[in-house]
Amino acid sequence: MLTAFMENFTFAGEVNVEIACRNATRYVVLHASRVAVEKVQVAEDRVAGAVPVAGFFLYPQTQVLVVVLNRTLDAQRNYNLKIIYNALIENELLGFFRSSYVLHGERRFLGVTQFSPTHARKAFPCFDEPIYKATFKISIKHQATYLSLSNMPVETSVFEEDGWVTDHFSQTPLMSTYYLAWAICNFTYRETITKSGVVVRLYARPDAIRRGSGDYALHITKRLIEFYEDYFKVPYSLPKLDLLAVPKHPYAAMENWGLSIFVEQRILLDPSVSSISYLLDVTMVIVHEICHQWFGDLVTPVWWEDVWLKEGFAHYFEFVGTDYLYPGWNMEKQRFLTDVLHEVMLLDGLASSHPVSQEVLQATDIDRVFDWIAYKKGAALIRMLANFMGHSVFQRGLQILSVSNRAGLIDDAFSLARAGYLPQSVPLEIIRYLSEEKDFLPWHAASRALYPLDKLLDRMEKYNVFNEYILRQVATTYIKLGWPKNSFNGSLVQASYQHEIPLNVRDIVYCTGVSLLDEDVWEFIWMKFHSTTAVSEKKILLEALTCSDDRNLLNRLLNLSLNSEVVLDQDAIDVIIHVARNPHGRDLAWKFFRDKWKILNTRYGEALFMNSKLISGVTEFLNTEGELKELKNFMKNYDGVAAASFSRALETVEANVRWKMLYQDELFQWLGKAVRH
């Protein structure tokens, strides 16, 4: 929340940050520079109340605000950090600064931001590094003679009697601080709308708007958004894009998401007096900044050493996008060589040159990575890649990934989170996109990755929260695909199982029926199992019997499985494993396995593969300290051909127990919040 006093160029701010505490700590450290902090509060939820703040101080050397608490913040809990502060609307070109112009002989002022790369901290205390993406809800209070702009559209405006107005902006998507933006000015605008409904406005001095000086930029911006949406096959992410022409700015332009800011000379032109070279200059700056709405804003480098990725892409697309607007100019095939490649080779030939990716260790290193090596050499490398692989393949590669990559990312995310290398929320965040997924493979990858997680959680009190979250992710596709349709002759309509949920759903129906209904249904399925002669049907019916919630029936089935007259030897393994997968039967199967081990080992001991399958199937989802102890005790008395299988089982169960101890609270805390929202 900002209150801007344009008559004396100061502003008052209030920041509320929801912070997730990963590790217990008595300190909260975030970036702040040149702000006067008046008050800091830390609170849990309303019931638990405030956490007493012992003190706070600014440390200018590293541009941070340190908050010292009287007691430790608990790991895996969320807190609200409230900071009240004030600062100057600076008379320089970084942070939240002021600018002016003359209209009808009168000097008028405006306030505008430039946060890249490390200047958001001058406007509000924040975690001012690109990896820390967050959603932002901004409110700006200003005199009613001005208007305010930010990344998102105004949601509501509250007018007060004393000539002030507060604009509340919509909440942003997840974004980095460096392309957050706002402005307070008394500009006017012209507007257009893209085919996909994005509202594009160009704001500038009223006299420039009246003259039509912004019309060219507005026109090509509309065309460029449509071009990039088609080229990347990713819709523009926000409801609007404002272009703001300011009298002074440290750069030609800045790609703030939804509110790109340009110095006037790089966006305003009068076609009757502007030369072709000036028009080309304006065009390429706009093409560059609109490209950043995807490469830089939607997708952001983790750290500044890879700034060449966003700047190299945007610089290369200056030529690709201008070719789209003016095909006859041959920018990508010809002008790129002289304007970029030849020029950067001269630079790269100097002993003072450097790789495109430079190590950045502290804030003072950041500015130096924004040089022509990052922009031009980066662009030349990307163009070389595009020409080597062919433009159509390059374009396809740019279009959130191939089917196999989408599947791979899902699997990687779950595996890395299980090993503790990623927050537990990341894989569950990733699968939110599945409602848009049309291909089978990513769904299959998600299904396979979720299964072991499901089995780790299925005996816990809060399991229903996990259940609800997963059901939400699959509901859209489930409803859209519906149930299998019967053809006229009564047989199931056949379709490729890779494009629709498998049509043969008898196994699901049988299992669900057995789990939800009474013992009579179990007996009915048991009789069906005996009477059917179809081998495939026998297998499905037998596995369905393991789905019961009735522990007596599960125990009965386990004991029956050892009778070779009733259940075939190889099917008995499946019975025991499937009972172990059932949360109501896991401990029963594990006890049965230990009690009957001599019989089972005699039966399968020589058939090592079957024995190995049985051992892993019964133990892979054990996850309590007690079960781990039982496994260790059992292994003490065993030294046979399946020793390697037991070693693997021990490693798996130890990993399960460790995961529960370290990560289950973090997971359920995130799930609780995700389900509430």
From TrEMBL:
Residues annotated as site: Transition state stabilizer: 375
GO annotation terms (biological process): peptide catabolic process; proteolysis
Bound cofactor: record note: Binds 1 zinc ion per subunit.
Cofactor(s) listed: Zn(2+)
Annotated ERAP1-like C-terminal domain residues: 499-654
The UniProt record lists the keyword Hydrolase: yes
Similarity comment: Belongs to the peptidase M1 family.
Entries under PANTHER family matching the protein: PROTEASE M1 ZINC METALLOPROTEASE, THYROTROPIN-RELEASING HORMONE-DEGRADING ECTOENZYME
Protein name (record): Thyrotropin-releasing hormone-degrading ectoenzyme
